[in-house]
Design brief:
There is one protein chain. By secondary structure, the protein is an alpha/beta fold. The chain has 15 helices and 16 strands. An 8-stranded parallel beta sheet has the order 4-14-13-12-11-10-6-5. Strands 1-2-3 form a 3-stranded antiparallel beta sheet. A hairpin with a 2-residue loop joins strand 2 and strand 3. The longest helix has 28 residues. It comes from Helicobacter trogontum. Belongs to the queuine tRNA-ribosyltransferase family.
Length: about 375
């Protein structure tokens, strides 16, 4: 995979790499389209309104519904969802982790019960890749063993060992498939180790030897404090190769993203923009507002006067307040468009600040703005 670093300020970096469905520039925020769709939006919204070309879909959910046979017949997720930008699919490891008592980790894979109908399933490293080939995702995350925090050293070591074992199986299987077929899918490994320095170093070292296309930092934002996460990122990024993309999974707030960029992260995803939008929480350049509050009933200003999204250039806080109170579906679409546009623009502006060598000033100003209380 062609990967270039265009500029750096400290550890913060502006990079680019090429996937089957177009070039990607970083830092980048990937909207989450779990079921092959971003909640409240359609593919034309993603292309023309959000103007991004890399989104995330979920292997676990698409496997259960609509199923790999339907995806194969459709010719993959790009045709099925009519979005011809790039897709990243996660491995299903987090969903299995979140199922609690309905999941069992074994040395050869993950046994779980469907949250839809209770049916039993088993994910192996190879099966996960077969599902992702059917989806035809541009970046395929491999199966990993995720553990919540806090965790014992014994559990972290078990997680690292199992993740490495599955990584070896995954890269071997993927290389065999590449020999047989014209496969353009890229494959990323996921570092584990909690917030333990030695475990993170070991996990990174073992995965780098296997020469993946990129590397993710998993197992964070699962119970630790933000400060603990930042301290972990300080050394975890240093363990990863410079000339490969670095992806922090499932994180987080705008402040988290800025701090992650500052420590060398290139890629982010999180459900927070859309989930918060559905619950009346709107991100702005001057902090977060709760649009359901009565004070917005007669506020005829945009959600964010500094935002150029479809919502802010056409509708007011009063209207969004009304839609939320009236439980109108249109609210979810307009609020989600704004929050996602805010996240995407924050990272585009971060990239420009790195290119302009003004990153530190930009980051400080943004953190100061975000700390304001509305």
């Amino acid at each position: 995979m062609q990967f270039q670093i265009q500029a750096k300020v400290g550890k913060a970096r502006a990079c680019s790499f090429t996937l089957a469905h177009g070039n990607v520039v970083t830092p980048i925020f990937m909207p989450v389209g779990t079921q092959g769709v971003i909640k409240g939006l359609n593919s034309l919204d993603v292309k023309h309104v959000l103007q991004t070309n890399l989104i995330l879909a979920n292997t676990y959910h698409l496997y259960l519904r609509p199923g790999i046979e339907t995806l194969k017949k459709a010719g993959g997720i790009h045709n099925f969802a009519n979005f011809h930008g790039n897709y990243l699919t996660d491995s299903g490891g987090f969903q299995a982790f979140s199922l609690g008592e309905n999941v069992k980790h074994e040395d050869c894979g993950i046994a779980f019960k469907s949250h839809i109908d209770g049916s039993k399933h088993f994910f192996t490293p190879e099966k996960v890749l077969d599902i992702e080939y059917a989806i035809n995702s541009d970046i395929m995350m491999i199966l990993d063993d995720l553990t919540g925090l806090p965790a014992t050293k014994e559990r972290l070591l078990d997680s690292v060992k199992r993740t490495t074992k599955w990584a070896k199986q995954s890269i071997s299987y993927h290389n065999m498939q590449k020999e047989k077929y014209d496969i353009k899918n890229k494959i990323f490994a996921i570092m584990q180790g909690g917030t333990d320095y030695d475990m993170r170093k070991r996990s990174a070292s073992e995965l780098i030897e296997l020469a993946f296309d990129g590397y993710a930092i998993g197992g964070l934002a699962v119970g630790e404090s933000s400060q603990e996460m930042y301290e972990c990122l300080d050394y975890a990024c240093d363990f990863l190769p410079d000339l490969k993309p670095r992806y922090l999974m499932g994180v987080g707030t705008p402040e988290n993203l800025l701090e992650g960029i500052d420590r060398g992260i290139d890629m982010f995803d999180c459900v927070m923009p859309t989930r918060n939008a559905r619950n009346a929480a709107i991100f702005t350049n001057h902090g977060k507002i709760n649009i359901k509050k009565t004070c917005y009933k007669n506020d005829f200003t945009p959600l964010d006067s500094q935002c150029n999204c479809l919502t802010c250039t056409n509708y007011t806080r009063a209207y969004l307040h009304h839609l939320f109170r009236a439980n109108e579906i249109t609210y979810h679409s307009l609020a989600s468009i704004h929050n996602l546009y805010f996240y995407i623009t924050l990272l585009k502006d971060s990239r420009q600040a790195i290119l302009d060598q003004t990153w530190q000033q930009f980051k400080k100003q943004k953190l100061d703005d975000l700390a304001q209380i509305n």
